[in-house]
Amino acid sequence: MTFTGAIGAVCMFPLRAIIALCVRLRIHPNVLTFVGVLINVAAACALAAGRFLLAGVIMVVANIFDFIDGKVAVQLHLQSRFGAFWDSTLDRFSDLALLVGLIYLYSRLGRSDYVMVAALTLIFSIMTSYARARAESLVEKCKVGFMERPERIVLFMIGAFTNRMAAVLWVILALSILAVANRIYYTYLALNNRPMPPRDGVTGLFWRAFFWTDERTTIPYDLWVIAILAFMWLIPPVWLADPVAHDGGLVAWAASKLHV
Fold it and tell me: Apex CA 183: angle with CA 4 and CA 191, to 5°?
């Protein structure tokens, strides 16, 4: 059991009860998907108002719906190709809404630099999904790159609850650019029948870190998660010119305690 696997297992306990209730009430999974998007729009409004804690709570509720719709579809035997299309399309609306909320907030604060950061994050987040969808019309599978939608959503929630949204945006932007590059390169190799990068030795460690093909809830995945969380919580917000957070960060807090 890995660190992220343990967290997932704990979260599944209440989700199983919610799934069972939805199945008992025979709520159509497409309705659950739509409700999840509406709640995410409410979260975007909270972000736009600078109310990050409220936005985090709303995102948790929204993503319960986002998570359970597929599970309810399976248990009610309502899986369909349209359902998959509906879910994927509405997911994009949720992603766009949250980032548009941040763009509005930063524009209201007069921070054109973070308007640009959020806009670029929006572009590359959507391109991450598009690159996979387009690639899989040409090759069998293109599930490479670390920063997929579940990671983005969890980071948004962490950023909202801890007031570290600027750090979250930088992480999502950097790893989304890398994910798009991964998917372009993977598709090029697959279409031209070329070998995939090595996974052994020192060279293999480099490729495993920056050409991401490992599954979730593995040791390499946990290491990336720890590195991301360390960046978010150790880097003082002032170093990132965070428009909202003005504290000294975890390092400054620890230094003050040690000084005492």
Answer: 135
The secondary structure of 149-163 as a DSSP string is HHHHHHHHHHHHHHT
Q: Distances from the Cα of 249 to the Cαs of 15, 167, 180, in angstroms?
A: 33, 11, 31
Residues 6 or more apart from 67 whose CB is under 8 A from it? Answer: 15
Tokens of 17: 């009860």
Q: Is 94 strand, coil or helix?
A: helix
Contact between 230 and 167 (Cβ < 8 Å)? no
Spatial CA neighbour of 225 closest among 236, 238, 234, 216: 216
State residue 249's pLDDT score: 74
The two tokens of residue 26 are: 């025979």
165 half-sphere exposure, CB direction, 13 A CA radius: 28
d(CA 159, CA 155): 6
What would the pLDDT profile of 135-184 be if each residue is shown by its tens digit?
A: 999 998 999 999 999 999 999 999 999 999 999 999 999 999 999 999 99
pLDDT tens, position by position, 34-65: 999 999 999 999 999 999 999 999 999 999 99
User: pTM for the complete prediction?
Assistant: 0.92
Q: What is the pLDDT of residues 83-96, one digit of tens each?
A: 999 999 999 999 99
The CA distance from 43 to 128, in Å, is 22
Task: Specify the residue for token string 């090595």.
Answer: 198
Q: Which helix (H) or strand (E) is 18 found in, with range?
A: helix 3-25
CA distance 29 to 22: 9
